[in-house]
Predict the 3D structure of the following.
Amino acid sequence: MNNSLVNDLWRKIAGIDKRLQRQEAQEQMPGGNRLTLRPQLYAGRVGDVAKPTFVTLGAYAGYSFPIYASDNEELFFRESIPGRWDGASNINAYAVVMLSAAEDVGDKFQFQLSWASHVTGSGALASAVTDVGTSQTVAAGRSAQYSIYVLTFAVDYTVPTPDLAPGDHFGGRIRRIAAAAPQVSNEIILLDFYMTYNVNKIYKSV
């Protein structure tokens, strides 16, 4: 192989190694980095219930939510708390939603994340959940049909006893619930849902 090509290859490898070292150092800084995971969402209580309604818009797809009324208009998910999480900070969940029709500025809508956790591989699951609600007011310039909003839900890791820990089984349920008046007139479409963790480790098998 040509010496100049070999030298060029080694320079590129050295550059990649330095970038990886910088990335490793940054990822090991407490609170300096976040891990984002998108759990799979499950619609319908028994699988054959077509609720919430699945909708599409061009290349986008989502679920259209009315206000929950004990009618299976809800989504479920489950996740294993990642081992890279620092175990000492709240977990944030985010719902990306859009208006299904034009709404009045100042009208409101609200979603609720209900969650529970369990130490994997021991004991029995319980039906009790912790509810976290997030209300949103339709803003000026963002009241047209298909306007997008991002809702944030803070998962307090100290709520369960013992605290949430890496490897725990985390279950979640998403509903749209009644907001304070005045409320929007139409359904709200959920486009995406993800969770972020502050991490202080590059890799852990859990």
About this structure: The mean pLDDT is 85.
